[in-house]
Design goal:
By secondary structure, the protein is an alpha+beta fold. The chain has four helices and six strands; from the N terminus they run αααββαββββ. The two termini are 26 Å apart.
Length: 124
Amino acid sequence: MPERNPAVEAAVEAELRLLDPEVRRSPELVGALLHPEFHEFGASGRHWDRASIIAALAVTTAPGARPVVTSHMKGVQLAPDLVHLTFDTDHNGRRAHRSSLWRRTGEGWLLYFHQGTVFSAAEG
């Protein structure tokens, strides 16, 4: 049985909050989870900065949206204040491999970097 790691558990909890449609629609709630220097290489191929992802999520997440389904989530603590998570998502049939770096700051664990890569069910 793997040893419990509070840092990994905190990053997983924050990642799951960030995937919640209620959180995604709120610029304040999303902003509270993103590091000031956040950036992402999205599954779309687009590069996102903190301001652009907050704005995009607020207008593209419809009320009553279906939640993003996650699987195979695992994490490793790379340094005292850095956790790397990997997982897969399925959002309305669009599947992606995901990688996130979470940094501990004075405000708690904040998402510093994220990357998504689309894959098909056959590729697994």
